Fold:
Amino acid sequence: MRRFLLVLAGLTAVLATSGVPAVAATATAASCVSAAQAEYRRTFDGAAGKVTIRAERALCSGQKQAFSLVSYTAGAPGTASGQFVYDSAGATITSSRRSVTLDVAVPACFFQVNAIKGTGVRTETTSNTSPYGAANLLDWYAGGSTACTATPTVTFANACDGTFTATLANGRSANAQAIFVVGERRIRLPAGGSTKLRGGKNSTLTIRASNFTTYVGTWGLPDGPCAAPTQPAPTRVASPAAAVPTQGAVTPGPTTTSSAPASGSGGGIVDEAAYGTGPDGTAPASATPVAQATSGMGAGSVLVIVLGLLMIGGGLIVLTKVIRSIRST
Structure:
């Protein structure tokens, strides 16, 4: 009996160390859900522009679900038409973040606030049909007591340098902020407010305003005259001859005898007018100074002298033969 109790105690210990964690792990895995299967509770205060969303069960690792809250200036109360985005916020529930709270500003005129699944916030809607549909729209609220009278304007001014400036403004009598959408950027201006955007060279600036008007700016010639661009003063570049140290004066004409280099002009440098130059700018070893060529004899003169000497020599030989012939007779 005692041995049986010991065996039973051992089995209990084994189950305590191996079976229980397995059950616990199974229970933990079963307690999480995918984002598609998750259910969410929310606390929505449309008038204040606030919503809190909480997942009923934790999302499993790697799962996530994004939510957005967006406010619009609106047309007639209770309709979807005439809405233009005023403010938006977004957050994501994950396996480590079970709830999120979103806040947006609401305009001081007719407005609508929508809480939606996802991040696909619409900039505007001119239809009475909900832009989000039943699948993504979680809650909505329409409020306000007066029509929105924001008066957004956009004007462009061209500069002479090829750039332009867009001036965005809202009328002083507006009861709500004017909204301008430029790419991913959203600009809100209070009554009487203004700001400027700069357009670069060869660029186009597209602005969508809350009056449901699109303004497109590109550069054009300014209304007033543009001053001629200031030209830089011409740079005086020394001629190649001036860069060579000055030699003695060279007399134009067939005679190109050069004199000795002037004092202080870099002695030893030969004027190119007197000496031929090789590819490296120096006088070739076979070059003969023109001055020596002028005072000596050229190749033609030497040839003439040689021919003369040959003729004289030939004449002497003929004369000698004639004299011998006479003596022999």
